[in-house]
Amino acid sequence: MSYARFLSVVVLASAVCAAPVERQEQSFGPDSQISAQVPTPTVGYPVVVYENGYTSATYHGPYTGTATVTGAANGPETLAASIAPGPPNPTATYYNSEGVPLNPMPAPYTPAGGLGTNGTLPRYMVESDFDFESIALGLYQEWIELDLFHDGLARFSDAEFTAAGLGPEARSLIEFMANQESGHATLLTNMLGERAPKECIYNYPYTTVREWVDFMQRLTRFGESGVWGFINHLDSREVGQLLAQSIATEARQQQVFRQMSGLTPMDVWFENGWPQSWAWTMLAPYISYCPENQTRLVWQNFPTLHILNNANINRFSPNDTSQNGNETVGDRIADPSLSTIPDSASCEYLTGPPGYACEPAVAHNKSEPLSFPGKKILFEWDAPGQAVGPNNSYVTSTNAGSPKFVAWSNQLNLTYSALTLTGNNSGFTYQPEGYVYGDDGIINGTMAVLLTDLDLYVTPFNTSMLNPHVVALGMYQAG
Ligand SMILES: *[C@@H]1O[C@H](CO)[C@@H](O)[C@H](O)[C@H]1NC(C)=O
Ligand SMILES: *[C@@H]1O[C@H](CO)[C@@H](O)[C@H](O)[C@H]1NC(C)=O
Ligand SMILES: *[C@@H]1O[C@H](CO)[C@@H](O)[C@H](O)[C@H]1NC(C)=O
Ligand SMILES: *[C@@H]1O[C@H](CO)[C@@H](O)[C@H](O)[C@H]1NC(C)=O
Ligand SMILES: *[C@@H]1O[C@H](CO)[C@@H](O)[C@H](O)[C@H]1NC(C)=O
Ligand SMILES: *[C@@H]1O[C@H](CO)[C@@H](O)[C@H](O)[C@H]1NC(C)=O
Ligand SMILES: *[C@@H]1O[C@H](CO)[C@@H](O)[C@H](O)[C@H]1NC(C)=O
Ligand SMILES: *[C@@H]1O[C@H](CO)[C@@H](O)[C@H](O)[C@H]1NC(C)=O
Ligand SMILES: *[C@@H]1O[C@H](CO)[C@@H](O)[C@H](O)[C@H]1NC(C)=O
Ligand SMILES: *[C@@H]1O[C@H](CO)[C@@H](O)[C@H](O)[C@H]1NC(C)=O
Q1: Which residues of the chain fall short of a pLDDT of 50?
Q2: Where does CATH 1.20.1260 sit in the chain?
Q3: Is the pTM of this model over 0.85?
Q4: How far is CA 197 from the centre of its chain?
Q5: 23, 144, 217, 295: most buried, per Cβ within 10 A?
Q6: Pocket around ligand 9 at a 6 A CB cut-off
């Protein structure tokens, strides 16, 4: 059997003949021993990860060493500073005004066209550098989810879960979602081969059950959108097929975490795609150590855009966040809202008229929205050149000039508002109003917001053309 055939059998039949990766026993001692706890990379292939169940790592925390390698991965050469816009594809001309097949049919009940429909044998393997780097990014994401979803279950007591409104059945559901991640990590590893990135050690921002769940609704948001951004650009349709089947699950996870956070389960009509560098920018700050010889990524890390008055999802009157300043637990891009606010301001234990409470529920109305058109949004942003990510070995960068616009990326749109500078690294804007179709407001839910030097027109299939114009990237909490 050829290598590729063998691979597709492993992927599709979930063959258990593959050698499992055994997790190294982790017993954490003093700081100086942390390096010894970085999971040992497993050489060999194919792989089924954690066949006998995953146990959350016993160490989570920051990286304390000095990076030996820095910067994103590079190819043999880089051919231009950016991609030049081009004309439409000359073959993109099909139009059907008849409503019936216009071309000879290759077989009964089989209209002409499509990709991978002419009988070629599928090959479930990345097919280009673009595919490899995109799926490798996806795998970094699956690994953190595997550890993160397990971590809260291990970290918090049953009493803390019950107090946060999450009973035993809810915890079982989270455990099921955690276990889904070992399947996703296996799938992506198999599509990459022997240089698939390995699991790392993570540094999480939360201290309460609510903050953990909030962090998971943010993390799965950029995990999902990070995939929608590249899935239809992949060279390998076969890889895209399998990836779609795992990201459909991730989308369900995001909604469940929204419900457990007491947010409206769905605020929007469309979930959009984000370029890989946005997802990597959001993910990297939470990865502290990766094993020796870890496969590095080519994607850019943008400077962080801090939203000083991002809505606190735990307030029954979220607009009060603006009077109280920054209510994020930390400084990282997807850090959750602070949950340890006075009970008198919290929506968590409210009973009374619908529209204000935010305990876990199938659905909530927000009588006072988390944000609204016209809200004045206060920003600060980091200068480039900061060490982030695994072993602090990536460096934030921007290719843009000075910031002039705020870009709001959500649904089918990327829309802009004007940035007013109040200092070298601070400014404000007003949340714009805009609609997709009908009364479906563009700005809603958990979304990406960027500072740019240009209000470049981009659409869902060419969003990455904006990257050379990005000054800083943040995550906005609307709803
Ligand atoms: C099927 O289509 C692929 C391109 O999509 C092409 O490379 C291949 O030659 C085609 N096979 C046949 C039998 O026509
Ligand atoms: C990260 O740091 C750990 C501990 O110092 C080290 O064992 C590991 O090789 C480093 N990983 C990379 C990718 O440099
Ligand atoms: C890392 O790569 C070096 C050079 O290829 C090799 O000698 C070493 O054994 C590798 N380490 C691990 C843990 O795979
Ligand atoms: C939100 O808070 C700001 C600052 O206190 C206030 O000026 C504004 O009127 C409030 N807006 C709404 C819609 O509550
Ligand atoms: C926001 O508050 C958190 C928690 O106090 C702090 O760590 C962070 O630095 C603050 N961020 C900004 C931009 O002030
Ligand atoms: C919830 O919101 C919808 C639409 O905004 C509204 O029609 C409905 O009356 C609200 N339901 C309750 C119970 O507040
Ligand atoms: C802003 O930048 C200018 C030019 O780089 C510098 O001279 C000035 O000191 C900076 N101001 C502040 C408040 O950092
Ligand atoms: C948002 O995108 C939709 C679909 O392309 C378009 O119809 C609508 O006009 C856009 N809205 C704005 C405010 O750009
Ligand atoms: C956001 O979505 C919620 C729920 O669908 C809706 O009630 C609200 O009006 C939307 N906000 C905006 C600004 O469109
Ligand atoms: C992106 O695509 C749209 C068409 O959907 C086009 O009008 C726009 O110019 C493109 N943007 C760039 C930067 O190429």
Answers
A1: 1-36, 41, 43-44
A2: 14-63+123-288
A3: yes
A4: 17
A5: 217
A6: 264, 267, 369, 372-373, 441, 443-444, 479
